[in-house]
Amino acid sequence: MDVMDRSTKASVGRSKQTEDPADKAPDRGTSLGSDFLQLEIGQVPAGGRTAWLTDQLRTAIADGRLRVGARLPASRVLAEELHVTRGMVTEAYRRLAESGQIAGRGRQGTVVVAAPAAPPGRAHDMPETGAGSGTAIFDSGDREGAVDMLRAMPCRIDLSPGVPDLAAFPRPGWLRAERAVLADAAPADFGYGDPRGAPALRRAVVGWLARNRGIRADPDEVVVVAGVAQALSLLARLLLADGIRRIAVEDPGSLGARQQLEYGGHSIVPIRVDAGGLDVGALRASGARAVLLTPAHQFPTGVVLDGERRRELLDWVAEGGVVIEDDYDAEHRYDRPPVPALRSLMPEGVCYAGSVSKLLAPALRIGWLLVPPDRLNAVVTAKRYADLGNGVLTQLVLARLMDSGELERHLRHVRGRHRRRRDVMLKAIEEHLPGAHVHGTAAGLHLMVTFGDPPDGAPDPDLRDSALAAAALDRGVKVHPLSWHRIGPGPPGLVLGYAAGPAHDIEQGIATIGAALRGLLP
Fold it and tell me: pLDDT tens digits, residue range 400-441?
């Protein structure tokens, strides 16, 4: 059995920040080199050999000497050639597996499955983005264009929020499901599908929501959409047809969601968010007839809409209000119990949107929308004329993953990875941003930091978060300034994603932000 042997497989799921004790084992010979990559370990201090080997392999993957599909030596073979313990080699391989660059393939051994844009282990040697490029993005005044510019900007380390652990995508499980779908597919499955979505996926979504979100629904109530973004677009069109032109949103809240509604022709009404979630009293006073919420894990603060606010919202819905529930990050929780979806409490007044973008990958463009019965036909019609429905084969593969339990297994796996990366970020913030107040650590794929004393009180008068984000980008690190996601005033801050990158990138990224912050303050 190759590298991803029993010892490695048992350790892949654990986060390990210290050197393996086997790394300090004495040499067993005088020849300390291998023909593989011309590795020479003789001059490397005993206490740093695991890190050295990991960095050598990572660099070889990044510069193309080890291409995707290349097979690595068995851990036993490489250990013998380098005259080190096998445990040292398996630990180096484990670290690369943790960052998603290699994976075990059974009898094929351990192979390279992903290559970074540049050697992460040598990020400090890479050129920075370039002075002034950050300012050009964050001070442009065009936030819609700035988001696209930031997403396309090359960088050393990406701490943008809203990006899942793409390296953890369950490729073997997806391929198995895809082969099974193709083997069983009828000729009709290759034609135009139902604009509501494939029946198999709608049934699977109903089961998923019942098991994981406490929502009882019928497959006929589910409309498959191209992510929450399309759900918002369809709902914006329907609400306009009903004469609703003003939609309340959380403040702070998602810039992207707000832009989606504005593009659909709506005026935005900001409603303050505090420790209990959206202020329902302020919502009532605003006169808005519809509201967009992220109640299970509010973006970006991470707070949960509390019980009293939920009861107040029930009363508001009973008076004719419409709730759009974006079930953002609901599955990704670590230190708190599950929170029921609003849809499970008030199905007649809630339009519920969810997706697999944060669970599997945004590239799949698959989500679901549940609306009250009196709006269902209008949603299906809007979906039909938008695109005739999502791709059927991808829907059938996802249905297999849901029905087989593979998606739950994947969720359990990534929860562990995300928790470890969150802990690394928290430790790095404590070390490099000692004055920052941290929010929303119990769940999600991001956290929020604010600068000021006390938390959410008087802002630091010497700091603009857009300037800090620009300075970080000039040093090669992407972050979102909190002001991007605010409408009203508030303390400066950053929204930091931790799910997508390995621990060393998170540590270096926060250290870089700390250096940028010190350079801005008097």
Answer: 999 999 999 999 999 999 999 999 999 999 999 998 999 999
Query: Are 96 and 90 within 8 A, CB to CB?
Result: no
**The tokens of 79 are what?**
């250990």
Structure tokens at 219: 């497959």
Structure tokens at 41: 């370990």
212 close to 331: Cβ distance less than 8 angstroms: yes
Tokens 């406490």 -> residue: 214
Please give the single-letter amino acid code of residue 203.
R
Distance of CA 26 to the CA centre of its chain: 42
What is the token pair recorded at 384? 């039909």
Q: Is the dihedral of CA 204, 210, 213, 219 positive or negative?
A: positive
| Residue listed under structure tokens 């697999």 | 356
DSSP 497: E
DSSP code at position 390:
S
Which residues neighbour 277 within 8 Å (Cβ) at sequence distance 6 or greater? 293, 295, 298, 303, 304, 305, 306, 309
3-state secondary structure of 451: strand
Left, alpha or beta for 37 (phi > 0: left; psi -120 to 50: alpha)? left
Strand 350-355 to strand 322-326: parallel, antiparallel, or no bridges (unpaired)? parallel
Query: Of the candidates 310, 393, 411, 307, which has an alpha carbon nearest to the alpha carbon of residue 356?
Result: 411
Are 135 and 486 spatial neighbours (Cβ–Cβ below 8 Å)? no
Strands 102-104, 110-112: parallel, antiparallel or unpaired by DSSP? antiparallel
CA distances (Å), origin 14, targets 98, 214, 358: 9, 30, 22
Q: What is the pTM of this model?
A: 0.75
Q: What is the pLDDT of residues 195-235, one digit of tens each?
A: 999 999 999 999 999 999 999 999 999 999 999 999 999 99
Backbone angles phi, psi at 203, to 5 degrees: -65, -40
What whole-number distance in Å separates Cα of residue 101 and Cα of residue 95?
Answer: 9
Give the closest residue to 109 by CA, choosing from 38, 11, 5, 8.
5
Tell me how far apart the alpha carbons of residues 246 and 289 are, in angstroms, rounded to a whole number. 7
